[in-house]
Write a structure and sequence with these properties.
By secondary structure, the protein is α+β, with helices and mostly antiparallel strands. It contains eight helices and ten strands. It starts with 23 loop residues before the first strand and ends in a 13-residue tail after the last helix. It comes from Triticum turgidum subsp. durum.
């Protein structure tokens, strides 16, 4: 590797901080040479070489930097000379007239009897530019009357400024802007009509407008930051619009969910109403059936009760007949003639009557005892039968209650839960 000051190398000296170094050659291999445009290029190469002979290249870079420092040349760190760019200037802000205004020129009309100029009126100027949302119109006056200079005043907001700027661009597109007015104006069109010119108001325009105005007649304005009054408001409007769209979408989704819930609730309510009506109908039918069953049970009960009453009556009749027979036989025995015949015969007949009566009394006593026992046994059987019947009836009611409970569990309505909203 060798470094020479030559004049026959590749042309150019774009990065020659050393001043006297034009081209430098480096022998890459026998018969091959690399050329560098100045010492700085060689230093950069020596610093960034990353494949072969790295240590040797770094040592060369250190020696070259020391030489450049000794000679008073600046050493630009590697990566800084070629790795930086210059962007936009730091601030793009500017001062603007506030509230936003558009100057309209050539609004003169004619002179009056006093040789003073007349011009366009406020309402007339607003009507000429009705497509733009100007809120007020003013005209400049001087000693000679109307000065042919008017102003459209817009809303003190970013939207008002955008409207004023839109009108300003319309004048530019039509080539009736500030530059045309100042350099190559044509006050009159063919046919005699005046050509209006317009542009966004600047501070000097406002000073010109207020030149002959005093006190309250001066048009008030202030110079404000464009970024603060327009850019920041537009950003805020964009954010508000995004938030508004988000809220609108959220409201739409909420309304859709509410509509779905309302429709679902309507269907459920209708089904519930139908179910309640069906339940009322079923309960009504059940009550009718229950009444029918009660009537049938009463009828059956009356039927069996009548049968029992008939049996009781027949039993009583039998007992009465039995009692009548006993009394009749006893009366026969007592009416027997015991006084006729021999003494022995009378005695025998008396004994026979006595034995018959005693036998009958004894038999009646036995009958009454057995009858009481029979009645007692019968009553006990009736009590037992009633107990068994009541137990079976209770068991039947329990079975019905269990079956009805299971049926209600089977058809238990689900719990309604309203779905929650997500933002």
């Amino acid at each position: 590797m060798s470094g020479d000051r030559r004049g026959g190398g590749p042309p150019g000296n774009g990065d020659n901080p050393g001043g006297g170094w034009e081209t430098i050659e480096k022998k890459k291999r026998p018969g091959a040479i690399d050329w560098f445009k100045g010492l700085q290029s060689l230093v950069t190469h020596a610093r960034t070489k990353g494949s072969k002979r790295v240590k040797l290249h770094r040592e060369l870079a250190a020696l070259l930097e020391e030489e450049m420092s000794r000679r008073g040349s600046s050493v630009v760190p590697s990566g800084e000379q070629f790795g930086k760019w210059k962007g936009l200037r730091e601030s793009t802000d500017r001062e603007i007239v506030w509230p936003p205004m558009v100057i309209v020129m050539n609004t003169l009309l004619e002179k009056d009897e006093d040789d003073k100029w007349l011009g366009m009126g406020n309402q007339e100027l607003l009507e000429y530019f009705s497509d733009y949302a100007a809120t007020k119109a003013r005209h400049a006056y001087g000693p000679g009357g109307h000065r042919g200079m008017s102003v459209l005043i817009f809303e003190s907001s970013a939207v008002g400024y955008m409207e004023a700027e839109r009108l300003h661009k319309h004048f530019i597109d039509q080539r009736t802007d500030r530059d045309t007015w100042q350099n190559r104006r044509v006050p009159f069109l063919p046919g005699g009509k005046r050509q209006l010119y317009g542009f966004l108001a600047r501070k000097e325009d406002m000073e010109t407008f207020n030149r002959h105005c005093q006190g309250k007649s001066r048009l008030k304005y202030e110079m404000r930051s464009h970024n603060e009054m327009v850019v920041a408001q537009m950003k805020q409007m964009s954010e508000d619009n995004q938030q508004l769209n988000y809220l609108k979408n959220k409201v739409v989704k909420t309304e859709q969910r509410s509509k779905v819930v309302e429709e679902t609730l309507g269907v459920i309510t209708q089904k519930l109403r139908e179910t309640m009506e069906e339940n009322i109908f079923v309960r009504s039918k059940a009550k009718e059936k229950h009444s029918e069953y009660e009537e049938e049970m009463k009828s059956q009960e009356k039927f069996f009760h009548d049968q029992i009453e008939n049996i009781h009556k027949a039993t009583e009749d039998k007992e009465s007949e039995f009692e009548r027979l006993l009394q009749e036989e006893r009366a026969k025995a007592r009416q027997c003639d015991v006084d006729s015949g021999t003494t022995e015969n009378r005695r025998l007949r008396k004994e026979q009557v006595q034995r018959f009566i005693e036998c009958q009394v004894k038999d009646v006593q036995e009958f009454e005892v057995e009858r009481d026992e029979l009645i007692k046994a019968h009553e006990e059987k009736k009590v037992q039968l009633k107990k068994e019947y009541m137990a079976k009836e209770v068991e039947l009611e329990k079975e019905f209650d269990a079956a009805l409970t299971g049926l209600m569990e089977k058809h238990r309505p689900g719990t309604f839960q309203a779905s929650s909203s997500s933002p």
